[in-house]
Amino acid sequence: MSRFFDPRYNALAPYTPGEQPGEGKYTKLNTNESPYPPSPKVAGAVAGQVEKLNLYPDNTGAALRAAFAEQTGLDVGQILLGNGSDELLAFCFQGFCPAGAAFADITYGFYPVYSQFYGVDPLIIPLREDYSLDIHDYADLGRTIFIANPNAPTGIALSRDKIRDVLRWNPASLVVVDEAYVDFGAESALPLLSEFDNLLIIGTFSKSRQLAGGRLGYAFGCADLIADLNRMKYSFNPYNVNRLTLAAAETALRDDAYFQDCRAKVMKTREHTLKRLRERDFTCTDSMANFVFAAHSKAPAGLLHRRLREAGVLVRLFDRPRTENHLRVTIGTDEEMDIFFAALDDILKS
Ligand SMILES: *Cc1c(COP(=O)(O)O)cnc(C)c1O
Questions:
Q1: What mean pLDDT comes out for the span 197-219?
Q2: Contact criterion met (CB below 8 Å) for 326 and 153
Q3: What is the pTM of this model?
Q4: Contact 260, 185 (CB under 8 A)
Q5: Which of 15, 108, 201 to mutate to test the pocket of ligand 1 (most atoms within 8 A of CB)?
Q6: Nearest Cα residue to 242 out of 83, 87, 85
Q7: β-sheet with 327-330: strand ranges across
Q8: What residues flank ligand 1, with Cβ below 6 Å?
Q9: 90-122 residue pLDDT tens
Q10: Ligand 1 mean position, distance from CA 179 (Å)
């Protein structure tokens, strides 16, 4: 630490991203990206913007927001774009948590980090023993609620009806539903936006839209909430989404056939992967995401994680209480999953 660093941040414990090794070195099943490239139409759209890189992007993201409005039926004033959904989640912790935040003990690792970063008091609510979330723990909390749905790293989803109950039981609190993985089989809270002004939905193009490298997140909420978020954005970085990403994302969003095809493939591979893991004595959650969360009956996760890495396969280990014996394995292509299982079978044999 330099002598210039504000001592307020001495204890800051940053988020640890999954490893991003040099390309091609590993079968990469550790950070929940899509194994498929972006829509083939994206390259042309991006190329068309390269010669305009001398100019700032549209700070309102009008064309992409119009495409979202067409697809969702929302008004453009209910939509905001972010530099990844992490940026929008950060705005939520910074601007919408005067009475503190509430979230599960096992959930997206950035929630506790942002709480600390912005001095927000966190109420940590334990999941049940089986990692499911009991919505009865989420009544009258008097704080801003963050729910990842499906949850990470468990993949377990709540129905829309349960999200509705949380919204009804906390009419005076904002409920942020982080739908990073919703496209892999869960129910979006989108239809609830017409009923509730205390709902903010956060989404991303990193997992189901093949654009993790482009950094595009979005927020859907009532116009007042989006106006507040805009105030924060324009007090921080008006040009938060770059020109190439705006073009890439609009093209990806409009290529619905490609999107549907990719997410169907991921879901199919996930179901097959769950079956193969259970045959090998793994206990797995019922994941509705593009990853599985699995613990072996005998082999410790730390050992599997290390040996898989030595065999060229990266998966994620959550070395914390309640999750230390689990691996989170991103769903790759069928070929990548075959490589994973070949390495795994070698390890389990010995
Ligand atoms: C990956 C992830 C995000 C962040 O996505 P970006 O848009 O890439 O910043 C947010 N929430 C959850 C639950 C995630 O898993």
A1: 98
A2: yes
A3: 0.97
A4: no
A5: 108
A6: 83
A7: 282-284, 291-296, 327-330, 316-317
A8: 32, 84-86, 108, 148, 152, 178, 180, 204, 206-207, 212, 217
A9: 999 999 999 999 999 999 999 999 999 999 999
A10: 9
